[in-house]
């Protein structure tokens, strides 16, 4: 199983983090992102979106980090991380959607502007970041983990771009519960960092 990967990508890190926490063997294949390798064959054939990560598992090829998390948890029977009960599954899924929407377009987008010089509306990204971080902070006032009473793929999906928010000029100092939650994730057996986390 191969993960086509960019070390500085929070989306790629979600997959590497989950694999590390659950001892799922993945061959990480670095991609020359700045050289545009993800926009040329064979990668553009695997993922016409031209984005990373891309997971290859035999005949199965998947794009999108949230989808890859679901696939890996399901394939390896990690029901503690991706439950089979519909209500619990929905609770996890709503956070996967948050990772792909509010987090990606808030702290993720602010980081793209500051760290990579991508032409996005920085003020709007910071506004979105502060809004979603306040919501997460409020949620964590009553919960140790995002979706259930234990870590799930929801925590793996949301944490990277939240933890990397300072690289986009979004301070985490006003959010002590978020910082404590990040600390709980870092304390999990098998945790592996990435640059900035």
Automatic annotation (TrEMBL):
<protein>
    <submittedName>
        <fullName>Glutathione S-transferase</fullName>
    </submittedName>
</protein>
<keyword id="KW-0808">Transferase</keyword>
<dbReference type="InterPro" id="IPR040079">
    <property type="entry name" value="Glutathione_S-Trfase"/>
</dbReference>
<dbReference type="Pfam" id="PF00043">
    <property type="entry name" value="GST_C"/>
</dbReference>
<dbReference type="Pfam" id="PF13417">
    <property type="entry name" value="GST_N_3"/>
</dbReference>
<dbReference type="InterPro" id="IPR004046">
    <property type="entry name" value="GST_C"/>
</dbReference>
<dbReference type="InterPro" id="IPR010987">
    <property type="entry name" value="Glutathione-S-Trfase_C-like"/>
</dbReference>
<feature type="domain" description="GST C-terminal">
    <location>
        <begin position="85"/>
        <end position="197"/>
    </location>
</feature>
<dbReference type="InterPro" id="IPR036282">
    <property type="entry name" value="Glutathione-S-Trfase_C_sf"/>
</dbReference>
<dbReference type="InterPro" id="IPR004045">
    <property type="entry name" value="Glutathione_S-Trfase_N"/>
</dbReference>
<dbReference type="InterPro" id="IPR036249">
    <property type="entry name" value="Thioredoxin-like_sf"/>
</dbReference>
<dbReference type="GO" id="GO:0016740">
    <property type="term" value="F:transferase activity"/>
</dbReference>
<feature type="domain" description="GST N-terminal">
    <location>
        <begin position="1"/>
        <end position="80"/>
    </location>
</feature>
């Amino acid at each position: 199983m191969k993960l086509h990967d960019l070390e500085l990508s929070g989306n790629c890190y979600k997959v590497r983090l989950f694999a590390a926490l659950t001892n799922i063997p993945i061959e990480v294949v670095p991609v020359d992102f700045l050289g545009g390798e993800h926009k040329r064959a064979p990668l553009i054939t695997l993922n016409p979106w031209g984005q990373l990560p891309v997971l290859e598992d035999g005949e199965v090829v998947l794009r999108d980090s949230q989808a890859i998390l679901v696939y890996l948890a399901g394939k390896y029977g990690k029901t503690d991380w991706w439950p089979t009960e519909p209500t619990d599954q929905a609770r996890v899924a709503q956070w996967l959607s948050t990772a792909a929407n509010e987090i990606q377009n808030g702290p993720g987008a602010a980081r793209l502007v500051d760290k990579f010089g991508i032409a996005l509306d920085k003020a709007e990204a910071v506004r979105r970041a502060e809004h979603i971080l306040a919501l997460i902070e409020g949620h964590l006032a009553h919960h140790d983990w995002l979706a259930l009473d234990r870590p799930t793929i929801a925590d793996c999906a949301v944490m990277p771009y939240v933890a990397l928010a300072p690289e986009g000029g979004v301070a985490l100092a006003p959010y002590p519960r978020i910082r404590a939650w990040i600390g709980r994730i870092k304390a999990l057996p098998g945790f592996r960092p990435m640059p900035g986390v």
